[in-house]
Design brief:
By secondary structure, the chain is an alpha/beta fold. It is 36% helix and 16% strand. Helix 4 crosses helix 9 and helix 5 packs across helix 6. This is Type-4 uracil-DNA glycosylase.
Length: 234
């Protein structure tokens, strides 16, 4: 694990060891002070979706709208992602959505809150929540959306642009695979070794919204997600 600092002691101490469900984790995450991002944001935005989802999508951090509503992927990038998921033939009911960092990082310009990419210290501080979520999920495919999520799960040397759309072994491709090797077997908290799953990286939907050629960027996102959909069907 990477270093933690006085400013960002990390989320681990806020995770109840006896939290068996995602709902219990979500409640605990509401009080997280693992880094300074909680101070300016409105609320923690935890993952959502069914615990038995076959696909886990991991994004960067909540945006302005998500911060206000307390739900991930409900802003413009989330709308685009939902369309891309549909166009790729993935079943939205089979998807659990979360972010690598659970509070909105921004800077104020006048009255506007402008997105700021989380630093490594925030990704590291928040990673225990991601690990805790995965310990209560059992996905067949993990989809990493963009560089921040890739850093959180795959380490700093992974390049989304180089390896996007490629199916990789999960959790073997993780930076610390040992963090992801146990999955739940039943609701009583029994755990077992994770069955082999796969991971695929692609761009974040907000990168499509920022692209000069949005149609081409969108097609690329859908093409990557289609690889995941076919892998599920296969
Ligand atoms: S960003 Fe993550 S570690 Fe930092 S306060 Fe929020 S939930 Fe805790």
């Amino acid at each position: 694990m990477a270093e933690q600092t006085d400013n960002a002691p990390g989320a681990q101490r806020f995770i109840p060891p006896d939290a068996d469900t995602i709902d219990e984790l979500r409640t605990a995450a509401g009080g997280c002070r693992g880094c300074e991002l909680y101070r300016d944001a409105t609320q923690t935005v935890f993952g959502r979706g069914d615990e038995s989802a076959r696909v886990v999508l991991v994004g960067e951090q909540p945006g302005d709208m998500e911060d206000q509503k307390g739900l991930p992927f409900v802003g413009p990038a989330g709308r685009l992602l939902r369309k891309a998921v549909d166009d790729a033939g993935l079943d939205p009911a089979q998807i659990y959505l979360t972010n690598a960092v659970k509070h909105f990082r921004f800077e104020l310009r006048g009255k506007r809150r402008i997105h700021q990419t989380p630093d490594r210290v925030h990704i590291t501080a928040c990673r225990p929540w991601l690990v805790a979520e995965f310990a209560r999920l059992d996905p067949e495919i993990v989809v990493v959306l963009g560089a921040t999520a890739a850093k959180a799960l795959l380490g700093p040397s992974f390049r989304v642009t180089r390896q996007r759309g490629e199916l990789l072994p999960w959790p073997a491709s993780a930076q610390h695979p040992e963090d992801f090797t146990q999955v739940p077997v039943d609701s009583a908290g029994k755990r077992a070794d994770a069955p082999p799953a796969r991971l695929l990286a692609t761009i974040h939907p907000s990168a499509v919204l920022r692209a000069d050629d949005q149609d081409k960027a969108y097609e690329g996102l859908v093409a990557d997600l289609t690889v995941a959909a076919r892998a599920l069907a296969g």
